[in-house]
Amino acid sequence: MAVKVIVSAEAVQRYNEVVTYLLAEWPLQVAIEFENKFDEIIKALISQPYMGVRSESDNNIKHILITPHNMLFYQFDGKMIYIITIWDSRQDDRKRI
């Protein structure tokens, strides 16, 4: 059975914010590398949905590093992967999921 991926509106917004920032402040290649890494992680999650690290605050939420500064938070219910958000690891850790 194929695993389906659902992306939240917040995750889409955060993804777009990261790409917009990278395009404004860094060479184009950096934004392309972020997008490629994100795509690689989604493909890996589809085949290995339990690969992320469990959140300290909620065992149902896992995270995985996209880049040294960005983490992807998701849930897996056995059939679907829910992409919750992308978190800038430089933000206040107390506000993290």
Characterise this structure.
A five-stranded mixed beta sheet has the order 1-5-4-3-2. The radius of gyration is 13 Å and the shape is globular. The chain is of the alpha+beta class and 97 residues long. It has a single domain, classed as RelE-like (YaeB-like fold, 2-Layer Sandwich).
* Name of the CATH homologous superfamily: RelE-like
Order of helices and strands: EHHEEEE
Shape call? globular
Q: Report the structural category.
A: alpha+beta
Q: Indicate the radius of gyration in whole angstroms.
A: 13 Å
Distance between the termini: 29 Å
Tell me the number of strands: 5
- Spatial sequence of strands, sheet with the most strands: 1-5-4-3-2
By CATH, the architecture is named 2-Layer Sandwich
Largest sheet: 5 strands, mixed
The first-level CATH class is given as: Alpha Beta
